[in-house]
Amino acid sequence: MTTLTQTQNDLIAQLRAICGTANVLTHEDPSADLSPWEQDWRKRVHGRALAVVRPGDTAQVAAVVKACAATGTSIVPQGGNTGLVVGGVPDGSGTQIVLSMTRMNAVRAIDPANLTITVEAGCVLKNLQTAAENAGFLFPLSLGAEGSCTIGGNLGTNAGGTQVVRYGNTRELCLGLEVVTAQGEVWHGLTGLRKDNTGYDLRNLMIGSEGTLGIITAATLKLYPQPAAQLTAWAAVPSMEAAVQLLGLAHQRLGPGLTGFEVMNQFSLSLVDKHYPQLRVPLWQGSPWCVLLENSDSENEQHARGQFEALLESAMDSGCVHDAIVAESLSQARGLWHIRESITLAQVQEGLNIKHDISIPVSRIPDFVAETDALLAREVPGVRMVDFGHLGDGNLHYNVQAPEGGDGKAFLHDFEDKVNTLVFDQVLKFKGSISAEHGVGELKAAKLPYYKDPTAMAMMRALKTALDPQNTLNPGRILA
Ligand code: FAD
Ligand code: MLT
Ligand code: ZN
């Protein structure tokens, strides 16, 4: 066990006075297990915190940040700790504070006429969706981790998910923010305005800044009417070209009704079939790709079904779909989505892997996949591609699994850097982004300067220095 300095002991005493003794956990207490806050979801890093601090309101967050700023102690904000790029866990130094926001989970207000909901940052996404639903509305952000991720983390990463094709990512769903700055001041920006041209857009700067520019304590978010009917279809398609063709048809035929368009390659579905056979994956054995489509209709189920059937009929006529099913009930639809959302977990069951979250203009995805698959097969004999994601947004989780029977740890050690460079070089060539929705965190921070415009990098560094001159907010994340 490391011995704390007098300054660290004084700081902990101060933090306990601010948040209450029970809400400041340290390694000095032998009964406290800090590992849930120190270990990232993918088990890539196990850090060591000086303390885990759990504030109960915005004033406490501000006081904690002031106390940390006075001692130059760095702070790692954390929500549900479901992030996939090592952004919300402490480093191994034992000197950082994890600021866990999960106690701040209240729904503060719903304004039905303004179509807005105001919630605290630690509100779990699923609870936010339920609060909107109970008030007769839809909050459309939806992702596999929604049962444990928080809206603060969603805003911190500008999360995407499965409804972006219709509603946009988290940034597009947010109207106002309450933020504690690096100096411990509170920015009261909880506006529900849809128009406000009074200078720099600080809200959009904070969103996606991964806790490096400020601590988000609350947000005002957009609500939408609930669809009258929602139908889900699963289609077997012969190629990625065909999937892109189907997407074009779906846009034409369904218009704004198209709320989900996900693609999954055969190997990713074979992993779900192998590790979760009870989920009964349909149509995967005879097809290199499957597509999951969702149609949200403002009229009624009959109208939605008619539209879907017409779409699939014309897709079959043109040869871009070989076989398809339309869910007959809500529980069948949920089952199909559950299969899609289980790919991440099935991949974990299969072993360690190299994850990519890239975006490419949709029109170029077929060429990107064909070319990059071939390059990887040459560099890593026996490589297995777990390729799936949000094709409607041009966002692929283009993941690389070790060859069959290979040791995951050794594979990462030998190939991670080489594979990342190969894939990211291809992304650059196809004018894409190396992070579409998961963020940069620590995992991609060292690579970012090679793939982002140098002037943009310089402006980002200048903003960081201006807003957080002591570099105490989540240092080493985004900017290495
Ligand atoms: P954390 O993991 O706790 O933190 C993430 C980042 O946000 C960190 O940098 C942290 O410092 C910062 N942060 C957290 N709270 C705050 C705050 N209040 N103020 C400022 N910064 C803060 N992501 C997608 O985009 N789309 C998906 O479809 C998707 N699916 C997923 C499925 C699974 C099974 C899993 C495990 C993850 C998935 N993710 C997905 C990734 C993850 O769920 C998202 O990144 C999510 O937004 C993280 O929320 P969190 O509360 O867990 O944040
Ligand atoms: C998803 O789309 O399922 C998520 O982004 C998680 C992942 O990439 O594994
Ligand atoms: Zn995703």
Describe this structure in words.
This protein has about 475 residues and is α+β, with helices and mostly antiparallel strands. Among the domains are: about 5-100, Uridine Diphospho-n-acetylenolpyruvylglucosamine Reductase, domain 2; about 105-225, 2-Layer Sandwich (Uridine Diphospho-n-acetylenolpyruvylglucosamine Reductase, domain 3); about 230-345, Alpha-Beta Plaits, CATH 3.30.70. It has 16 helices and 19 strands. Strands 12, 13, 14, 15, 16, 17, 18 and 19 form an 8-stranded antiparallel β-sheet that branches. A 5-stranded antiparallel β-sheet has the order 5-6-10-8-9. Strand 5 (about 105-110) and strand 6 (about 115-120) form a beta hairpin. About 50% of the residues are buried. D-malate (MLT) binds next to loops. Flavin-adenine dinucleotide binds next to strand 3, helix 5 and strand 10.
Structural class: alpha+beta
Shape descriptor: globular
What Rg do the Cα atoms give? 23 Å
Strand segment count? 19
Helix content: 25-40%
CATH class placement of the domain at 107-225: Alpha Beta
| Beta-strand residue percentage | 15-25%
Question: Total number of helical segments?
Answer: 16
Q: Roughly what is the average pLDDT, rounded to an integer?
A: 97
Separation of the first and last Cα atoms: 29 Å
Question: What name does CATH use for the topology of the domain at 107-225?
Answer: Uridine Diphospho-n-acetylenolpyruvylglucosamine Reductase, domain 3
Going by CATH, the architecture of the domain at 107-225 would be 2-Layer Sandwich
